[in-house]
Amino acid sequence: MKKICVAVLAVSLAAGALAGCSSGNASGGDSADKKIVVGASPSPHAEILEQAKSILEEGGYTLEIVEYNDYVQPNVALDAGDLDANYFQHGPYLEQFNAEHETSLVSAGLIHYEPFGIYAGKTASLEELPDGAQVAVPNDASNEARALLLLEAQGLITLADGAELDATKQDVVDNPKNLDIIEMEAAQLPRTVQDVDIAVINGNYAIAAGLKVADALAIEDSESIGAKTYGNVVAVQEGHESDEKIKALVEALQSDEVKQFMEEKYEGAVVPLF
Length: 274
Known about the structure:
Layout: H1 2-20, E1 35-40, H2 42-58, E2 62-67, H3 73-80, E3 85-90, H4 91-101, E4 105-113, E5 117-120, E6 134-138, H5 141-153, E7 158-159, E8 172-174, E9 180-184, H6 189-192, E10 198-201, H7 203-208, E11 218-219, H8 225-229, E12 232-237, H9 244-253, H10 256-266, E13 271-272
Helix pairs in contact: 2-9
């Protein structure tokens, strides 16, 4: 009898261990689970998620937000199953992270982007740009391409066919105003804008420098390739994109209430993509 009891106990412990080792979401694999654990950067992502809480509560879901101050740990935690989703990154970064860390994280939905803007320096408007005007742009590959695409969208230059997000100033094939395109460290652009005619500045750096997107001479259109490519996404483990709670999360973030919050709170610095 004692041997039988020991055997039963061993089987029970083994079953429990297997259940405890199951991979998947932070809240377990139960489809009826109503808790959603999401990693996010403090601003604007966690602030936006806070606005989605009440919407999710109406559907019976509880949203737990875990804040991170770096761009690595939210993906590490998601891959480990400590999170159900994260919301802090754009698509190209997610792809790069997967390639470098051999992970399989995917986008479950596109939420917003933080637009590039053209800001006035010595020249007050695009129409007043003189021949040979100095135009400062970021010197890193992805940001320079976005800057050049924005200049092209304003009719200031023409880029070679197919250059798009790989564009550099060597891809400028038409430059009717003979603009002097100056490449510099992106973080330096807000501090040097008054030394050039105009500067094309990333949204994050513009906000940090106290520049208002509303004051920009031009910003990326929400339908532009830059906006769509660098839109911030809700990321999940591959295979969980259609989980009911993930769909509920994305729907809440893409709601009219959250859209209104983004537009009123960030005044153009955070633009909904839905």
